[in-house]
Each structure stands twice: as C-alpha cells, then as structure tokens.
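ARCHIVE CARD
CATEGORY: sequence design from structure
SOURCE FIELD: tokenized fold
FIELD CONTENT:
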C-alpha cells in the first residue's frame, strides 16, 4: 500500500510539448486527486495510466491560467464520459462565480453534481476515510493556497509469531485484532490488540506548495512531510528575479524542505526558459540532499514507513 504521485505538467507559464503546465495527480487506494489543472491536463491524464473516472476531488492553488485553464475541458469530458458521481472542487474565492459564468454562457453544463468549496482560511478542506487535506495561505501575486494530505496513524504490524505463541487460531480473529478489537478465545482468555500488534505506524504526509515566494506558511504546510512538492520556477541564484515575479528558486524550495524537516523534495513549476533540470537539482541539493526535479509523467511511489 502506497501513494502514487504522477506529475501531469511541470512547467510554468504556457504549455510546451516537452513540459505542460501545472497539474499533479495523487492516487491513493483507488481514489484519484488532482492538484491544479492547467491547460491540457485532460490530455496528459489520458496519456498516463490514470483513470479520470476515479477522480474524487480537485484542489486549485490560485487563479493564474497555468493552474486552472484545463478545468472546464476536463469537467466537460467527464460529463461526456457519463459521470454521475459528485466531484469536489476546492479553490480560492471566486470559484463559484467562475462556474456560474461558465454555466450561464452554456460553456459548461456538468452532468453530475460539482461540489464547490471556496477556501477562506487555513484548516481542513476535505476529509476521507483515515485521511484529510488541509490548506494554508501562500504568498504570490494573487490569493494562493497550498495543500497537504495527512493520513491518520495506522495500527502496528501484526506479529504472527506472537499470535502463535498465544495459541490464537488463525482466521477471522486475526483480522479483528488487526483492526484494533479485543477478542475472546474459546478457552475464555481475552486477547487485546496490543498483545499482538507492534507500535502504531505513522501515516503519510504530502504537501503541495506552489506558487509562492518563501514564507512561514509554506514551511508550516511542509512540516515533517514525507514528500514536499514545491515550486522552483528559477534555478538557485535567480532569487531577485523570482521575488519580482512572486516565485521561488530551487534553493528556496530546498530551504523550505530543510526548515520544515521534510524527508524528500520534488521540485516542479519550472520556467519554460530552462531546458535542462541539472542546474535546478544541483543548486537545491547543496542545501537539501534528497531532492529531485519532476518531469512530465514522472511517477513516484511513496511507501509508508515504520516508526
Ligand atoms: Zn504558475
Ligand atoms: Zn501563479
């Protein structure tokens, strides 16, 4: 069991054949979540192994075109695909107005309920079974929100040897103990889950931080994350240019990962001016070693760890 991250677009500004604009898919236990939905995200989705029908929710960071222009098209195609299940869309204030305009102009008539949630403040914005997404403000040229997925702790590993020593018959009782319930054996003994389970195991935390200049709120979102996905529009050394445009460099992304004590950094939102990523990765690794730069269709399998 793991979480799969698939980068559908890793460029900033405008779509290019080698690098589409922002979108990242997160696939978890049969459910698909999208962060941002730049132009042609639906094409990228069909080129990936992901099934758009599995989409549960879309999280939009801000209303710059390179993060949202693909949304009406994607929703239109889901309608053509006969979707009937609701879809949650979470994004900045103005999202409802945008949908109303698309509806009134007959551009978009979704054949399924679209549940819109406008983010007004930091906090939880989506809840699933054993996990939740929360949001926090970033600092960019317009209102922008970063997001983080956090899973709940999972029960510890089942110790089969210990269960044998306690003469617990294999079968359904194992499952009940694993799910945290005490069981009674035929000989009258009661077995508590902690008798056969190891220590609880932490869930995963994945943070998505784009677009932003370095800020405390980004560090908070990324705090102790297993994976931090952070924008790096420019390579290290271009901080002045980055600040003028409300962005971060690869070194800024690395500093955020380091401050937040994240375990791994994946950079995205690379300026289309730069063909090669070596400069980005090299500059960031001097500050935070466990760094990679995503390309379109880069896929990362994020495994849960023991304590
Ligand atoms: Zn952008
Ligand atoms: Zn932007």
């Amino acid at each position: 069991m793991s979480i799969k991250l698939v980068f559908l677009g890793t460029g900033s500004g405008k779509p290019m054949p080698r690098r589409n604009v922002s979108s990242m898919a997160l696939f978890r236990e049969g459910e698909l979540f999208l962060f941002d939905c730049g132009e042609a995200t639906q094409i990228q989705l069909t080129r990936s192994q992901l099934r758009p029908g599995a989409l549960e929710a879309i999280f939009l960071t801000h209303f710059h075109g390179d993060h949202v222009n693909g949304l009406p098209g994607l929703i239109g195609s889901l309608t053509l695909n006969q979707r009937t299940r609701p879809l949650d869309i979470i994004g900045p204030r103005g999202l409802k107005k945008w949908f109303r305009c698309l509806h009134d102009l007959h551009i978009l008539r979704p054949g399924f309920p679209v549940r819109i949630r406008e983010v007004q403040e930091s906090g939880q914005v989506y809840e699933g079974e054993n996990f939740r997404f929360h949001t926090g403000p970033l600092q960019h040229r317009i209102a922008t929100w970063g997001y983080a997925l956090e899973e709940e702790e999972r029960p510890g590993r089942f110790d089969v040897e210990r269960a044998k020593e306690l003469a617990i018959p294999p079968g359904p009782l194992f499952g009940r103990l694993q799910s945290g319930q005490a069981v009674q054996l035929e000989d009258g003994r009661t077995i508590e889950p902690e008798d056969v389970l190891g220590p609880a195991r932490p869930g995963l935390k994945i943070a998505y931080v784009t677009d932003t200049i370095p800020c405390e709120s980004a560090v908070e979102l990324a705090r102790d994350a297993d994976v931090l996905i952070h924008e790096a529009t420019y390579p290290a050394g271009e901080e002045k240019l980055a600040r003028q445009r409300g962005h971060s460099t690869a070194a800024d992304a690395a500093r955020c990962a380091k401050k937040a004590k994240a375990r791994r950094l994946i950079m995205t939102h690379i300026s289309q001016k730069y063909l090669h990523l070596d400069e980005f990765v090299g500059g960031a690794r001097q500050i935070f070693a466990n760094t990679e730069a995503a390309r379109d269709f880069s896929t990362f399998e994020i495994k849960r760890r023991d304590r």
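CARD ANNOTATION: The chain has two domains: 2-154+201-303, 160-196. The chain has a mean pLDDT of 96.
SHELF: design records, drawer C
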